[in-house]
Design goal:
globular; 425 residues
Length: 425
Amino acid sequence: MTAPRFLTLAYWRRPEAMLVLMAMAMAVSLHGWFALLNNFAVERAAFTGKEIGFLQSIREIPGFLSFAAIFLLPFIREQNLAFVSLALLGIGTAMTGYFPTEIMLYTTTFIMSVGFHYYETMNQSLTLQLIEKKRAAQHLSRQLMASSAGTLGIFVVIMLTFDDALLTKLGQVTGLPLGGLGLSLGYEPLYLAAGLFTLAVAVFCKAFYPQYEGPEVQTKTLFVRRRYWLYYALTFMGGARRQIFMVFAAFLMVEKFGYDVTAITLLYMANLIANIFIAPYVGRLIARIGERRALIIEYIGLIGVFCGYALVDHHLWAAGLYIVDHLFFAFAIAIKTYFQKIADPKDIAGTAGVSFTINHIAAVGIPAAFGFIWLNDPGLVFYIGAGMAAVSLTLALLVPRDPDQGNETLVKRLDGPAPAARPAA
């Protein structure tokens, strides 16, 4: 079904609804898997730091190989590959609790990671092909909101059903009589439930939604375009920024301010609730002010946040920085909509895989290198992060106010030859 036809359908039958539903299902498995992983690996699989490190390296391998998704497209439609990938994520998650051995935990991790990364690659490609440019930022914010809702939902389920410890601690903090309310299901049923939910959504989407077609047949070869260099650079810096938040900001809360599991969980839930309410406003803001201004706001804010991490001495101020830091992730939508505007429509699928590979280069190098810096001076890690945000700000200043094909950056000599003129409608 092509764009003119599916735009006449009711919202719940259109690709927007399908992509939002899939985003929520992805989050349930992915974040359910993450929430239980460390305790499961230690308690059931007897993992040490060595095995955990190796497992995380295995998890990142499919991210590096995201570019290879393009080689599957001659044999399977993008939408079907998204369904298969989402199903793999669900299957890998569902299996995790029942195979508590080193080799099998590596295996289930690889399965779920392949599903996640290839789903994300196809999701970005489908979104930028099927959603109109004028509505893309708002739609991507809805995907973020759905992902946050799915994550919050699985967190609440884990809190209520895994065991009684977290509810007891929460009761001590709040003064509410919450002890004894946990169901004590343990790991296996929760991994199974999260995975089966995601698998069920993948099957439902395949059965319920028609096959949507973008306006252009996609290029099914691997390529890197010179005129997309600024998009590649922003994507790489975005991956580096994510690692600062995921690895070192969370570690700061634990090491310096003594946040325990309950406090970290509540802090992350506060982030998710804030995202659910704020993400739609960010999407509308990007649509109104444009990608250039949105990215400038994000990176100026991040410079302040990272410097704040380096200087903060009070746990409540640190928590505030952590929440603001997380909210700035919503502004990364502007990188995707910027690419949608400058890209040849035939390049979207191929570039989606390449961009995920670029993003994951930072995922491997930064944690290890910055970990050594942390041992000597934790504040320096965040000052370097502020410097990286300044580099991103410099790149954002090169984004035109009205990006389009042939107007990719403000540095024309780096863009290479202009794309061929599009035929008049």
